[in-house]
Design goal:
four-stranded antiparallel beta sheet; alpha/beta; 12 helices; six-stranded mixed beta sheet; 2 domains; Rossmann fold; about 260 residues
Length: about 260
């Protein structure tokens, strides 16, 4: 049996008669990059919100490392090692790139609110912060005020601040959304690089990104799992093509 880090059993979320997530059974294997894809309104973000406890499931269970976390609060989930990129990507726009990563490191030390600590006591975090910036190719931007970073580089900074929390499972929500081709390529390479020794679950709409880096893909449609497998298996599935394009001919290849 494969080593499953995250599992959902019959996960369901209803909003006043509308079923946004419908009986989803998901298994994310340790060390994999796993993508949730699907047309708009498929339930991908709701699924993420259930996993990080921003929403409470109507029914079903969520297990992390074989522990039932269905009733856990968002802060407990984060402490256990499930970190979602935007949870801390509320990067601080008027701090430097380096200072943003350092705040992520402080959180993992449990000193998150010690903003009044002397510069000296925080400087021991600087080496680790610079290591993380090097991982995401932001070394040259260390002293840049975050608000002045190009958009694609801000997403790289989000990934660095997420890494500062030492996640066992990283949840990336549309990491390449709104990016031009060059930034998409850079961030895709970055995700591949930081995935070494980690598990990543991502919601992504760009099939180029998914095809290049994902070990497994789960396709959602109207809140339910439509198909699952490798990119090759999923992209040749007639139902998936139809869901995406309303056609049964070469749909995902066209999107690729």
């Amino acid at each position: 049996m494969a080593d499953v880090i995250l599992e959902t059993r019959h996960l369901t979320k209803e909003f006043k008669g509308f079923t946004a997530v419908n009986d989803v059974n998901l298994q994310v294997q340790r060390g994999h990059i796993h993508a949730l894809i699907g047309p708009n309104g498929a339930g991908k973000t709701t699924c993420f919100n259930l996993l990080t406890k921003f929403l409470v499931p109507t029914a079903g269970q969520i297990l992390f490392n074989n522990r039932d976390i269905t009733a856990a609060a968002p802060a407990q989930i984060a402490r256990q090692g499930i970190i979602r990129s935007f949870q801390i990507s509320a990067v601080f726009p008027h701090l430097s790139v380096m200072e943003n990563v350092r705040i992520g490191l402080q959180r993992s030390l449990g000193t998150s609110f010690h903003f009044w600590k002397s510069e000296k006591s925080l400087s021991r975090l600087n080496d680790r912060a610079m290591e993380l910036l090097a991982q995401v190719d932001l070394t040259e931007f260390a002293d840049t005020t975050t608000i002045d970073l190009p958009y694609g580089r801000k997403r790289a900074l989000e990934i660095a601040t997420t890494l500062a929390m030492e996640p066992e499972l990283m949840l990336l929500d549309e990491p390449t959304q709104g990016m031009g081709h060059e930034d998409v390529h850079r961030v895709t390479e970055l995700i591949k690089k930081v995935s070494a020794g980690r598990t990543i679950l991502m919601v992504e709409h760009n099939m180029n990104v998914v095809s290049g880096i994902c070990d497994k893909i789960t396709v959602l449609q109207r809140g339910a799992v439509l198909a699952e497998g490798s990119y090759r298996e999923v992209s040749s599935n007639a139902q998936v093509m139809e869901a995406y394009m309303g056609t049964t001919a070469g749909a995902l290849e066209g999107a690729h």
